[in-house]
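FORM 7B: Structural annotation worksheet

SECTION A. Query
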Amino acid sequence: MEAFKNAIKTASLSSIADTIQRDHDKQGKTVNFAAKPYLSAMRTLYDMKSTYITETADSIVNYLLSNLGQWRGEVAKIVKDELRARVKDYYKNNPV
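SECTION B. Predicted structure
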């Protein structure tokens, strides 16, 4: 799992979105209906500076995280922690 942790740190947001979907599929669960539009939007993003139509990546990632509360497991923890770290780093380096 250490290799996965290291890989996710350099993965694009679109790649992370695919990982989220694959892990839900592996668990035999569907993505929360409220998270689906944000997961779909995240599939078009490369990094935290990307945009989807008029939405910024930080907004999309925050809304996705707020709707993935029921997603559990080791992969979920690693991915959520990485996304939270990216949002925090983005805000730190791009003050409003």
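SECTION C. Observations
The chain has a mean pLDDT of 96. Residues 2-93 form one domain.

SECTION D. Sign-off
Analyst initials: ____
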